[in-house]
Structures are given as structure tokens and as C-alpha cells.
Amino acid sequence: MKKHLLLLTLVATSLLLACKSSETGIDACTLATRAEVEAALGESVGEGQRGVLQMEGMGDFRGCQYVTVRKPGKVVFVAVMQQCESLTPVRTRAKEALLAVPELGEDALWATESGTLMTREKGSCLWVQILDNQETPSPSTAELSARLEASESLLKKALMRLPP
């Protein structure tokens, strides 16, 4: 897998991106399309790359990664896990501030340092993360705000496409 996949973090939880495609379940690349990711970021991205992300204490997330054409650029990861009971494992393992985002659901959380937005809806957990490969280890408040806005846009679209 690409080197920048190893940089993905989710609130200090052990993650492993497996090199296999999603054969069953929701296709994360249909939850946020290439055109929607481009609109949210304001720049071109390549085709979505599918994979399975294993999250300790929760299970497998079906994921889709989009990488900007500009190098070094941004990486957008959209992931979904069906039959997800709660985000409690994320809350208990968090090593960074988690802020509630009530407009996206009662379980919605924004992990401020990693730039990860997650929520639980219709029995599924969804996650959007935007990484910038050219920023310093501590992104500015403006960059985090822009990331949150783009993540919210993508997550709202993904929520509308979740099956009942």
C-alpha cells in the first residue's frame, strides 16, 4: 500500500490497512464520490482506492481513499462499518480531544488533532479523515476548521446514502 496510508491515525487506536478489497457490505467509495471529494477539497483527486481497515476493539471498516493529484497533497479516507453498536471504543482509547458535533448525530465526534470526523447512524459507524502531507505536525486552527467543514460536507452526503 502507499506510504501515506501508514500515516493514518484514529485517536491513537491501532489500525491496520489490509490489502484486500471489500467484497461484501457497503462500498465506501459510493458514500462519498470522487466529484464530492474534489468539491469539498477544492482540488482534483484520483480514483478512490478500496480497502479494509481493522480497528482494534471495533472490527473492520470498509474504506475508500482518495489522494489529491497535487504532490505532496492531501489524503481523504472515508470508512464505514455496518452493525456498529457504538463509538465507545474510540472514546475510551482517545489520546486527543474529542468534541461533540451534535448536528451530525448524538454520537458524532471530531478528533481535533487527527482531523477525524466520525458518527454512528442507522446501525453503522462512519468516519472521514483528511490528512495533509505537507503540513507541520500541528495544523493551524484555520486548517483544522477547513478540514472539519470539508469532512462535515462529505459525512452528510455519506449519511444520506446509508441503507436503512
What does this structure look like?
This protein is an alpha+beta fold. The chain has a single domain, classed as Protein Transport Mog1p, Chain A (3-Layer(aba) Sandwich). It contains 4 helices and 8 strands. It has helices at 28-31, 34-41, 88-93, 141-161; strands at residues 15-18, 49-55, 59-67, 74-81, 98-100, 109-111, 116-121, 124-132. Strands 1-2-3-4-8-7-6-5 form an 8-stranded antiparallel sheet. Strand 6 and strand 7 (116-121) form a beta hairpin. Helix 2 runs antiparallel to helix 4 (141-161). The longest helix has 21 residues, at 141-161.
Give me a quick take on this structure.
By secondary structure, this protein is of the alpha+beta class.
Would you tell me the overall average pLDDT? 80
Return the CATH architecture: 3-Layer(aba) Sandwich
Whole-Å distance between the termini?
33 Å
What is the helical fraction, as a range of percent?
A: 10-25%
Could you tell me the strand content as a percent range? 25-35%
Strand order of the largest sheet: 1-2-3-4-8-7-6-5
Radius of gyration using CA atoms only? 14 Å
- Form type: globular
| Uncertain runs | 1-23
Q: How many H/I helices? A: 4
Counted beta strands: 8
Helix/strand/pairing category: alpha+beta
N-to-C order of helices and strands: EHHEEEHEEEEH
- How many domains? 1
At CATH level 3, the topology is: Protein Transport Mog1p, Chain A
Largest sheet: 8 strands, antiparallel
Q: Which CATH first-tier class would you pick?
A: Alpha Beta
List the keywords.
single chain; 30% strand; globular; 8-stranded antiparallel β-sheet; Protein Transport Mog1p, Chain A; alpha+beta; 164 residues; disordered N terminus
